[in-house]
Structure formats: structure tokens, C-alpha cells
Amino acid sequence: MGSFLLEGIYIYILTASHFNRKSNVYLKMQDGRQVHVIERDLTEPDRIVGELLQPGGYLKLIELGLEDCVEKIDAQKVFGYALFKDGKHTRLSYSLEKFHSDVAGRSFHNGRFIQRMRDKAGSLPNVQLEQGTVISLLEDKGTIRGVQYKTKDGQELKAFAPLTIVCDGCFSNLRRSLCNPKVDVPSCFVGMVLENCQLPCANHGHVILGDPSPILMYPISSTEVRCLVDVPGQKVPSISSGEMAKYLKTVVAPQLPPEVYDAFLAAVDKGNFRTMPNRSMPAAPYPTPGALLMGDAFNMRHPLTGGGMTVALSDIVVLRNLLRPLRNLNDAPTLCKYLESFYTLRKPVASTINTLADALYKVFCASPDQAMKEMRQACFDYLSLGGVFSAGPVSLLSGLNPRPLSLVAHFFAVAIYGVGRLLLPFPSPKRIWIGARLISGASGIIFPIIRAEGVRQMFFPATVPAYYRAPPVK
């Protein structure tokens, strides 16, 4: 039987992409393989992201037998989103009629979820869970043989395995030898906790289309609401000088629903702000014998839609299914060639969620461009129509309908809807020009994202030879 060595990963094969800096990812292997997990810090993390799991991600938890990891942590069920703009709002519910009553999104304290995962992994006799910091990958003639790491006591050791799964998070210092990282940082989140606050729509995520960019709110316990204020760019107002509090009170607070206004101001006065850069990075791996990237070290998208953990869990299911028939992992070149199919098989789910997240963020940000203002308003009004107009996009966002073609169809339906609003009842040259720029702007948003994701793998995965790759015989 083969063995695994994971830097920041717990195996079932299950990872979460928004976990600790040395990304906490969890795999639980029931196939008898020995797993050595090296985690930078085993204390409960305190994070402001990785707190929302979409229904599609919860279904993956069930598939992995890990659904009990969201129990006993005061996790809250999430049944959809509420979208706010200019004093109006619309409720967008997940289409859960076909599923068991327990299937819904979940929101929770990130650290509590991670600790449940750690307990699950640590309870397995074939898993060795160790606190340590991986310094480097061990390479021999182009093949990764394991890692060099420093233990909690400062001792430098080497660990060897036929397959090393690297998932050291969004700040990864190991990814460069395994992929071509093109990281974009469009914005930062400023996070705080609102206490004893009743959201306008219970058990829903809330997206306020504010100026200059969206504000998110969702429950993370029975008494707490997470608020994430998006600040465009890579710098946020200074906390120490008081600029942050002033910005939140004068710019953000007036745009919030009245139900949360007082709790928001109380949280600002409390001053317990946390900041986190929002990163986007398309998957661009170098197939490397002996190693595999996963989680945020491998692929990121804007966290606006809360899709990161769903992508990671879906990736784990794909990888688990690929590894399950294998009995010998020691032929690194053969294994590497076989696992190339992973990069294609993951695409329908990953590329749909990635593209939606990055495209929606650009649409939801305020813009001085009249065409982009029309696109933003058209998106809100389109979703407010209800029926298939909201059910389709929400099923994409929730991970329940990972179909790239459906995503593109709805995206351009929004654009065409926006143009129709401009041209009716009577078009004018100015409105025609704005409509043309709206279509051009929409194309300029989504097509570069699709190109980065890979057109062929995203829309025509069956044409990729690796899609049909069979497991090695021996």
C-alpha cells in the first residue's frame, strides 16, 4: 500500500481552501494508506474567511462521510442570499426541493470547523498528525520525494512519501516549483463580528451592493453575524490612526439595512477589525512526478460567493476517486501521467464557481462608467425577476449546477436584459451607444476569466486526452 505526505492537509481526501496560512486541509483516507500530516499550527485558528459552505460543498462533505464536522459547532443553516441595492432588496433561495431536508448551506466559525476536521483525521490509526513547518520540497531528478520540515521543537527533519500533496494556502511558498502562479489581489476584506444582531432575512447570506464595493453579512453562530466590508485595492484605511473606524462609520454604515445599523456601529466602536487580502489565481499546474497541489496554493477566486471550500471539497472527491483503484504509488512518472486527468475532471465545478465569483465581483463593484452602472442595475433587476432568472444563477453559485455553459448563458442574458431596458420604449443614439458599451464591457469581464480557466477544459473536457486516462495496471 502506498503512503501520503501532506503539508497542511488532513485526509479523507478533503481540503478547505480558506484555512490557516499553512492551509488546514483535511483528508481522511479509508483505503489503508499511511498519511503523515504536517501542519504549521495545530491550535484553533481565528479567520475571517472560510466560514460559509455552499450546499454543493455540503453534498461533497456527505459524499466523503464528513457531514458531522459541521455539527456541535453552532453552525447555522443557510438557505440562500438576500441582495440589497439602493434601499431595495430581493431574496434568492437555493433550489433544495430535490434534496434531503438537512441539505443546505452552512456558516460557522472557521476555527471550530477546522478543529472538528482535525479530530476526525487524528482519530484514524493510519494518520500521523504533527505540528511543524515545511521548509522545502525534496526533489531528485525532477521527482518530488517528500519534504524537509522543522518540528515544533526546532529540529529539522526529512519525511519521504511516493505522493506529496502540497496545500500551504494562499500565501504558499512551495507552489512556484509546481505551478505558474499569476495572483491578482483586487481587494481586501475588513472583517468584524456583529453581536446579538437580527439580519433582515434569517438564515441567509446578505450582499449589499454598496459604493465602492459589496458588503457581506452572514451568521456564524446563533448570536454572531460576520460582516465583511470589501475595500478595493491592496491597501485599507489605517486602523491605528482611526481612519478605518471613520471610513466604516461615514462611508459604509449609511449604506446598510437599518436592522443591522446599530450593531454595526457597536462593532466599529469595539474596534476588533481583521483584514484579509482577496486573491484570485487560475489553476496553472506543472504536472510534477511525486507531488500535487491543492487548495488555495493551487487555485483561488474572489471570496464574494463563498465558493472556495466547495471547489476544494469537489477537488478532493475527484482526487479520491482517482486514487481509490491504485494499489501502488511508487511509480512516480506513471502516477503523474495518470493524475493529469485530475486537472480536467475538476474543471466543470471549479471553473464555474471561479468564473462566477470573479465576474460577479466586477459587476457588483460601483463604477463611474454609465454602461457598468447599467450592468450592475440590470444584474440586480434580473435576479429580482424570480423564477428561472434567479434559480439558474443561484444554482450556479451554490455549487448545485456546475455547468459553465449555463453560467455564460445567464451572464449574457443579464447584459441583453440591460440593453433591452435601455432601448425600450424608444431608443436614442446615446442609449444605443451605452448598450453597445454594456455588451462590450460584459465581454471584457467574462472572456478573460474563461481564457485563464482554459476554454477547452472548461467547455469541452471530453476532447482532452487525459480525460480518458485509465489507472495504471500495476
Automatic annotation (TrEMBL):
Reported cofactor(s): FAD
Gene Ontology biological-process entries: response to hormone; sterol biosynthetic process
Catalysis: reaction(s): squalene + reduced [NADPH--hemoprotein reductase] + O2 = (S)-2,3-epoxysqualene + oxidized [NADPH--hemoprotein reductase] + H2O + H(+)
Pathway entry: Terpene metabolism; lanosterol biosynthesis; lanosterol from farnesyl diphosphate: step 2/3
Main location (coarse class): membrane
Localization per Swiss-Prot or TrEMBL: Membrane
UniProt GO molecular function: flavin adenine dinucleotide binding; squalene monooxygenase activity
GO cellular component: endoplasmic reticulum; membrane
One Pfam match: SE
Enzyme Commission number, as recorded: 1.14.14.17
Domain Squalene epoxidase residue range list: 160-433
Topology in the lipid bilayer: Multi-pass membrane protein
Alphabetical list of SUPFAM superfamilies matching this protein: FAD/NAD(P)-binding domain (SSF51905)
Enzyme class: oxidoreductase
Keywords: FAD, Flavoprotein, Membrane, Oxidoreductase, Transmembrane, Transmembrane helix
Protein role: Catalyzes the stereospecific oxidation of squalene to (S)-2,3-epoxysqualene, and is considered to be a rate-limiting enzyme in steroid biosynthesis.
Family membership: Belongs to the squalene monooxygenase family.
Name under which the protein is recorded: Squalene monooxygenase
